[in-house]
Amino acid sequence: MSIATLQVRVINASYEDLAPTTLDRAIMLVEVQKRAEIIEVDETRLLRTYTGEPYFLPKVIRMLSMLKVPFHYAEEVFSRDGVIRRDDSTCGYCGKKAYGKDITWDHIIPKSQGGDNSWLNAIAACLKCNGKKANRTPQEANMPMLWEPYAPKRRYFKADKPRRKSKKDRT
Q1: What CA–CA distance (Å, rounded) separates 18 from 58?
Q2: Whole-number Å distance between alpha carbons of 5 and 21
Q3: Which pLDDT band holds residue 154 (cuts at 50, 70, 90)?
Q4: Where are the domains of the chain?
Q5: Distance, CA of 130 to CA of 162 (rounded, Å)
Q6: What pLDDT is recorded for position 118?
Q7: How far apart are CA 78 and CA 63, in angstroms?
Q8: 166 Cβ partners below 8 Å, 6+ apart?
Q9: Domain 76-133 has what CATH class?
Q10: Are 23 and 10 in contact (CB under 8 A)?
Q11: Whole-angstrom Cα distance, residue 78 to residue 75?
Q12: Distance (Å, rounded) from C-alpha 133 to C-alpha 151?
């Protein structure tokens, strides 16, 4: 691995994490452009500048001015994994935690009785309870739910698109 490809953590002026960058880009931000400062160095690695001065490798740099971080809003998409994550891998009928193939999700009102795939009609269930309830409602199966399902609130994601380089960065 080349020393220039080492990763350096970049934090905003408000100390929130930004994307990591390479060592050569970090040195450019700190020494040449004067847009960042070094917060933490790796004292086990030492570089020498072209003038012969010792220089510790930076591990964390902080931007001197705030950078606007692009965010967008997205609804939580209904999925099997989403239901299990919402219910914290806990069966909604017996309350036991289960993981991997031992946990699944169940339609509260079965699809054969007009139920749909939605957050309010789905609950995490262990295989035993899911098989016991079968194609019935919780009342018909005499299996009361321990909590009412809900639709998760909106989640916030950082934009995954890479930022377009400015003319200064392209040279």
Answers
A1: 16
A2: 9
A3: low
A4: 3-69, 76-133
A5: 44
A6: 93
A7: 38
A8: none
A9: mainly alpha
A10: no
A11: 9
A12: 23
